[in-house]
Amino acid sequence: MSLRAALALTQASWRTAKSYRFSFVLSFVSLAVTIVPVYFVANALQQFMAPVISSEGRDYFGFVLIGTAMLTLVSAALSSFASAVSGGLSSGFFEALLVTPTSLGSLLAGQTGYAFAWAAARAILLVAAGAFLGVDLHWLRLPEAMLVTTVLVFAYAGVGLIAAALVVSFRTNAAIPQGVLLISTLLGGVYFPTSVLPPVAAPVAEWLPLTPGLRALRRALLLGYPLSAINGDLLQLAGLALGSVVVGAVSLRFAFRYAKNAGSLSQY
Amino acid sequence: MAVDLARLNVPVAATVPNEMPVVRVTDLWKEFPAARSLADLLRHPFGRRPSPAVADVSLDVCAGEFVGLLGPNGAGKTTLLKILATLITPDRGTVTIAGHDVVTAARSVRQIIAPVLANERSLYWRLSARENLELFAALLRLPVHDVPRRVGEALDVVGLSDAGRKMVGQFSAGMMQRLLVARALLGSPRVLLLDEPTRSLDPAAARAFRAFLREELATRRGCAVLVATHRTEEAFELCDRVVVLNRGRVVAAGPARELGEALTGTRYSVYTLEPNHHALEEVVASADARRVAATCEGVGRWWRLEVEIDGGDASARVVLSTLIKAGMPIARFERVAAPLGELIDRAIARAGLP
Fold first, then answer.
1. pLDDT tops 70 at residue B1
2. Which residue among A5, A93, A257 sits closest to B122, beta carbon to beta carbon?
3. Of A218, A236, B3, B46, which residue is the least packed, with the fewest Cβ within 10 Å?
4. CB count, 10 Å around CB of B286?
5. Can you point out the beta strands (E) in chain B?
6. How far is it, in rounded angstroms, from Cα B24 to Cα B98?
7. What is the pLDDT of residues B152-197, one digit of tens each?
8. CB-count exposure of residue A192 (10 Å: 0-12, 13-18, 19+)
9. Does A265 reach chain B within 8 Å, measured CB to CB?
10. Which residue of A has its CA nearest to B53?
């Protein structure tokens, strides 16, 4: 893995994004548009939601805010690999990268680095804005929160790699990123805790990385739980992450081998 | 040196004796599933009809040598280059670059080769030329302290020093093509693979670019260069040797000059104000030349005549001298390369292929 190559690619994407000045500024404005309605709606629902979310937090605005921030990262993890591969294959840019001595892992890391960095910046800004608007965060639990977030991103990045493998092999991601994002948003506890889900959906929710991820994160940041109190969720999340990353990496490897044999690696 | 033509089912090996080849292709074979109609797919959903893209191709390229791969679309030129660039895995045969196998030692191969296969969309258009090259310097693992010098040199070589800070999106097609070459030269490669290097250039720019490629890549840097093209004049003007491909097979191979004389025909174009000048009529009547076509260029009533002159350049020189002595106003007289289709037909006929 060449960190230098990955950073160079990320920097190139950053320079490109920065060159579209109006769009760049507008993306910051959209953050404010995201958070303000959530603030008012969450406050209006506070008295109804307080007993329902009590195992993960006291303040409903903080509950939703963390869910929304993590959804930003999950979305980037799910879609950025397939988007990078698909865009690179159609423009011919991926071909130019693949004939350099840089490893595939470094190329993918570099091609998606900006998307991840931008999603992380948005998530941090959302949480910081929440703190500014009165969310009571346990800042001492930041290391636990960062650990959970990292594992959560890996868990969804594995699915993102599977989607990228499908693009390399069959030129379609089979709507996997969109489907997983939709199911995770509905059942993963972004806007309401999974404890309110009907019995049919509850077992499905437990197989989604977002469910233990958000539970652990909220308990750490909103209730101040230490690592020892969230390690059950963290272990469950780590198991899901390991499985998805291994399957994703193997799929991508096979996809590239298949595409090299089929001669479709460099044409869309 | 005799022109080396293929015989039926026998691969033609284009080799230069007494020199160690940098690129060695031996009995290379690659096939892809042929396109099938919907009806065929429904009748035989699992049936595969493979079609060879590269069939039994053998080829050697030495350092400092320019080899042209000439053929129509679908001849297998780009597939061959992509196999050399480690982007496609061959079905059979071996390909080595400086002794490294393209399948088993792909990463070593990528440190030696520099393909210019991708189009101008493979550049970051919102970045400057210099920033694009700096990115690729990192991907090529050039030493960090050496990057500014190498980038400066590469821009200088292709004549883009003054445009280094300019955004690539503002470049002309020719400038982008030069930048792609600069990018390829960054890592000081031993082998360059060029796919249609002048495709987006006008004739004058293409000629200048070919001269630059020849001088810089082969003469000064001593690179082994493989150029895929469907332009006959490009292959014979630029290359030391030409390999003619058709439907994946080598149908002719040999030194550019000799192969050119054998295959491109003996057609010449004459630009004149008097297409029916008596001197030309006399030459045609004496069977030294045959009229093929006459077209009015429309500017100042100049006519472009195409004539076949047997005996090649020596006979053409005599004919031209006769016409000038007789007072025929001639502005230009030049050899015309036969169209690619005609050239391939001749190669197939000479090789005795069906």
1. no
2. A93
3. B46
4. 10
5. 4-5, 13-14, 21-33, 50-62, 66-70, 92-97, 100-101, 113-116, 191-195, 224-229, 241-246, 249-255, 267-272, 289-296, 303-309, 330-336
6. 8
7. 999 998 889 999 999 999 999 889 988 998 999 898 899 999 998 8
8. middle
9. yes
10. A263
Q: Between A11, A101, A107, which is nearest B107 by CB?
A: A101
A22 to chain B nearest CA, in Å?
14
* Chain segment A182-211, per-residue pLDDT in tens: 999 999 999 999 989 999 998 999 999 999
Using the structure block, give the residue that is written with the tokens 């070589």.
Answer: B157
Please say whether the beta carbons of A263 and B30 come within 8 A: yes
Give the separation between CA A265 and CA B38, rounded to whole angstroms: 24
The mean pLDDT value of chain A amounts to 92
Least Cα separation, residue B247 to chain A (angstroms): 16
Q: Residue holding tokens 């919102």?
A: B126
Kindly state the tokens that stand for A172. 């379609």
- d(Cα A62, Cα A132) in Å, to the nearest integer? 11
- Backbone phi, then psi, for A50, in 5-degree steps? -50, -50
Say if the Cβ atoms of B118 and A93 lie within 8 Å: yes
Model confidence pLDDT, tens digit, residues A156-174:
999 999 999 999 999 888 8
Per-residue pLDDT band for A264 (boundaries 50, 70, 90) equals: confident
* Span A10-57, pLDDT tens digits: 999 999 998 888 888 888 788 878 888 889 999 999 999 999 999 999
Residue of A nearest to B31 (CA): A262
Q: What is the mean pLDDT of residues B226-234?
A: 88
- Spatial neighbors of B42 by CB under 8 A, at least 6 apart, are none
CA atoms of A67 and A127, how far apart (whole Å): 10
The ipTM assigned to this model is 0.87
pTM of the entire structure?
0.83
What residue has token string 């890996």? A154
Of A221, A227, A225, A233, residue with least CA distance to A62: A221
Residues of chain B in contact with residue A261, where contact means CB-CB under 8 angstroms, are 88-89
Tokens of B280: 């030309």
Beta-carbon separation of A9 and B115 below 8 A: no
CA distance B108 to chain A (A): 8
**Residue B181 tokens, joined:** 């070459």
**CA B141 to CA B108: how far, in whole Å?**
13
For residue B169, how many C-alpha atoms fall within 13 Å in the half-sphere facing its CB?
A: 6
